[in-house]
Design brief:
Blueprint: H1 3-28, H2 31-42, H3 63-79
């Protein structure tokens, strides 16, 4: 494995750890706050680029926005099946 490949693996591992931590934090929130944040994530799952063809190739400059939308989706997908933490 070369140095660049190892570095990408490290970055991906860190991102995955942060994603999982965020999902656990959301799952531990009271139901009302959790629902509010999940709704916020849901509103951002699809990048609003005005394209009528969802299979169209994105133009330059949209890669970052699409990556952000994909990350929101990944976090929401992790949170959805988690049980709500019981409150004392």
């Amino acid at each position: 494995m070369n140095n660049a490949s190892e570095r990408l693996d490290q970055i991906e591992g860190r991102l995955l750890a942060q994603r999982r931590l965020l999902a656990q934090m959301l799952a531990a929130m009271p139901d009302t706050q959790r629902r509010m944040l999940l709704d916020w994530l849901d509103a951002r799952l699809v990048m609003r680029d005005g394209q009528e063809d969802p299979g169209a190739v994105p133009s330059d400059g949209l890669a970052e926005a699409m990556a952000v939308a994909d990350e929101y989706r990944a976090i929401a997908d992790l949170v959805a099946p988690l049980p709500v933490t019981a409150r004392p």
